[in-house]
């Protein structure tokens, strides 16, 4: 028996306690950034989620699609505009965003189905999943950009019960049934809270959270909720990371057990985070106790 | 008690035997044509289907969206092309078609939800619903236009069981997981057969089938399967109607009990056909016996 | 399309929000008075209830039968006697009452079955539904006339779950297993409370409640619980109406959402009350808010 | 330990194999004759059936009530008439029969409930249980006397599933929804066949079947189906017994495993037949093999 | 009908209220002492429990096997040792104990199966049923003798739901997954508490509890919880009985309704206790009220 | 990201199609030979089976224990005897065998539970799982050694449904309820057939089947059913292997899809066989087609 094959067995056996710990638990994966653009990374992410499904987890994918939206906005002769990092979304832009995001959504469905797992692509409109209200960053009206006001998770539970992998595109309607685009991070966070997810993982384009974001050697592998709150309060961790950390803090406070910020540029980052005892990226946890459990 | 209110009671009571007959039966509605363009007609169709759902039927909507596709094809500077009435669908066209149809789909979901009924919009990709193969009309390759090869109705049954109204957009993939557009009539027909629908109703832009399609006074209200087959064989009933009649014949032969060709331009045509003893449009039935039942 | 048929569609569509509001809700109908004597009215009531069942409501009928009891009492040479409006019920009278009411009960079952809906006729003895104690109006012993002491609704829930329409005749036994007759209004009220009915409708021989019961122009279409209590306290609304109003007040206080006093002499009064936005008769509601909802 | 108590244990242990054999099996008991008239016998029968229910059997009672009907017919000044042993049943007689039988029915329900077991009394009208057609003995029209044409056992199965003891009174309607009286033996037999009863027991006023019905010493304790058919063909066994034997033969041929003709005048005859290895009355079995099983 | 057979019916009828009272209730039987050694007594106990199962109770057997263990310990040349009545259990002894008890267990399974009832033999290891910790009587280490620390009753509930009779042998493991022997009384008591048993019956080698254990005429048939506690506190009732009484007190305090100390040397003592109104042995009850219920 | 961790992800991803293929399929593992003796190998086997359970398979373990039986037989001063490779099993030997095998059984339960998976240890007596008849090799009576005559798999299905891992020890009883020892290979084979296992894997002490069993270089990795039958008929493949091959042939003919002969001396052989595309040991398949599927 050659040593290479033996090694395979060991890797599988090493995964055993992790499979056990998350068996039948819901894991929300926010899928975005480079991992959505690069073809090979995309395939890897889909394979990872399919594996999670097959070994007994209950993953839910929430995806973005900003780059494709911008590209189509330009294709019809318009110019994408942003305020404070939010896309200004007038009616024609909203129309394009809905078309593009739903196509991205069905494309992911197709990739999952191709690997033999049943998937259903839904938007926040289906079954009234995401009820929104207009977002007014610093009081400014930037059009059809919404905050999640309420989540009706019945459809997600029904699909999970029937053994489908739900893939969610972040569009919803408000109380007057007007369509809104939602930031995918926000949508993932709201859904994770509504279904009491065991884990919420963000695929990002950074390695994780840095203690000093100028110095890449200060990557933090675990933060407690308290520490994360201090980071947000003090504006540490770099501009783009602040709202994401705020989302993590919110999610943890409302019942999600553990939030991860992963580097989506690393192939199979999701699998590695879950199935190996080192983990990668930054984990934010509810308490000190939890940390010891993981280290033990 | 004024007579107007009394009349209301009578109308409701008149509907009783029809509600009874179709209670918990599946009805597939092919939604297309003018009824998708005119705002008021659209609202009426959605109201009709919602009513069917609420009184105990199990409706499934299958919709098209040809006009919107053409409009978007032009918007990005391309020119829609047709061969034998089929849209030539190269890759960029297919991409636009998928975006547009999915947006139409979610728009219908939203309208149904607004009336208080839970809906889920899916494409033929979700749960592997529609498996297709390339269509080659007269041997010609017209790109990503597919015939339905196989239907996997599990997702539809699951959604119906969980009390959702499924709304299907006619896009699927082939055995190599390439995306195809499907004629909505074909998709509706294939789905109706796969779920053993009690009824399949086409909303069209004609009054129904004419014995002599030059003479509008020859509208036929009921055709048997045999008569319909003779019409197809003899090329009667007008060009556009032949493939539709062929679909009806196929559906009836594979277990659908009754097919209707309705004039979608008439407000609430669906409701009127089902709940009144006159019916409108043309019904195609399996046998003479069936006809007498309806007349009795 | 002639306007008469179009009108039918409109009536059906108008019913939509009401069907929605009461979908799968329990509605207890106290059936009595003229509507039980006149053959045509009887058929109408049965048709109304059958329609409610078919469109998704869960109706329960509770019926009386006083006139038929009196007629049979006379047939065997006895004389019906009343004290304060209650029938003096000695053993022979009780025997006749039980025979007559059960036959009325099965006759209603038969009429419902004839319309294609499954019904089961039960008395308060079946499954121990109605546990009673002797009624002593003003301290007087009038024989086997009982008050409902306890309701065991399991059988009703079981029949509803199995999709039957339960029809209840108001006879029960006391803790010593002696048979008692129960006032049908009381029985309906007790059952409505025990199953948390959404609605309790009394079919009576009056138009409703009058502000001044000498003046028929003062018919009240809606009363709040508070107003109804004041009416009872002040003895307003006419003699026969006081105990019925008291029943309504009790029912509302114990969880029934809305009580109706309908004029059973109007054909389809039940349907009209439920499916039209005017309503007929008098509704007693829990609060001001509820009223606005209905009017809105 | 005194020997009397020890004896009790032995009796219980002796019952063990019989409890085992009939566990969760349906047993239809035709209840009639003296056992319905004598107060003490009545209590015994009810206790027996309740015990069967409690130890895991699924009993269904079908009862008659001929004597009470005749008594009430006379009470209103009419004269009971019979043709060939069948009551001539005009409309007034039918009305009385329905009243009387339903009261008998609810009285039995009450007795069962008093012993702590849940019972529901139904007639053949409830849930459309018994569909009948006019009986024409020797071509004679004797009014509303019916043969069972079809049994819809759903309600019986639903009640058994919900752990109720069903008690059936033998009245049904024909295809035109006219009410008919049914011979209780016929009704019991039809129901036993429809539910594939393991056992059908007739409580009668004779000891059983005699080989020579003039000679009481010739009581037969077991008959095969073949022998029973010969008895019927040859008119042996005494006049009143022939139609009952014919019923037994029919029941056995259509799936009932074993039919018993018991002497209802013996206290607890039902219990003794089922729980002791001697048996009482006459058993009619499907085959020789079955006999050996019982004897072994 | 001879009087002997009639008597049988009476005995069965007498059992009726007891069957009713314990229908679907869990009864834990601690089986040990002489009743495990004498072949005929053994058969009687198994028959009794099988009868309880068949008439609707849910019995669970917990058994010992001390004598057989000692006999095997000697067979391999070792000498059984006891401290304070507890077996000193070194590793070789534990190994033998586990072998012997599991064989006793499967032998009981076989006897139950032979009577036609499905049984499953489990130890406290299966499904993690019994979690233990080392017992240190008076601080002494006597080896692998454990106290029950925690019961995980899921497997018991699953087996009962699937209609099996569970038979438990009192072996479990501690938090370090080391095997321990458990006193069968303790195990029965812990299990009865964990499943909220209606009744816990100990089969012993004494007649019951004596008020003065020197004087056999002072057998007590019923003790309240308070009285039992006083007996324990004052060391009354004889040496061997004190720990058993303590167990009874614990069980009653944690939800078991009634505990019995029966004389296992009396044939069918279990059946007699449950099905006759005298009872045998000593019952310990929660309160005075309970006593009157039983006497009434 | 270091390459070692990346490699882990790849191994997990490689397992994906195998997890998919066997998801919710039953796999019977015959556990015996060296893998039961060596402590480390034992732990590996248990870990492998636990992993299979956790990723969605439904494993059933059937184990032997011959060496431990012999050791205990000697311990009590007897001498193990064999005829044609079968243990001569008189009553004292049978008693020891039952004790030893049940202890081995509970020891396995404990090891599985320690890894966090719920297990239940049963013998062929529990729930009447294995019904046997005396084995008479070449007509010789060798005592209590049985062949499996009938399998009642209900208990196995119940335990799998409730999510337990069943561990079976090969002891059963015959129609007279006498205890028999069963060859573990035979028991595994009979169980695999009775539950329609997808796979049956034998852990043995050889590398697999050799074309020429003198020449270790002729190990066969796949055999068709036909080839295996020829091997048996021609007595090829070495003495000890013939009966095992015969078992494989029987199992395949009765619905098991694939049988494996694995070398239990290789750590994690089970995992490697299932999760890698090389496989180890010898697989026997139903047809040529099956082989191509695996190779493709």
From TrEMBL, chains A, B, C, D, E, F:
Q: Record-annotated residues binding substrate?
A: 65-66, 87, 181
GO biological process: any one? L-arginine biosynthetic process via ornithine
- In its keyword annotation, does this UniProt entry include Amino-acid biosynthesis? yes
Q: Name one Pfam family in it.
A: AA_kinase
Q: Which GO terms describe its cellular component?
A: cytoplasm
Query: Where does this protein reside within or beyond the cell?
Result: Cytoplasm
Q: What does this protein do?
A: Catalyzes the ATP-dependent phosphorylation of N-acetyl-L-glutamate.
What HAMAP family does the record point to? Answer: ArgB (MF_00082)
NCBIfam families recorded? argB
Protein's name according to its UniProt entry: Acetylglutamate kinase
UniProt source species: Qiania dongpingensis
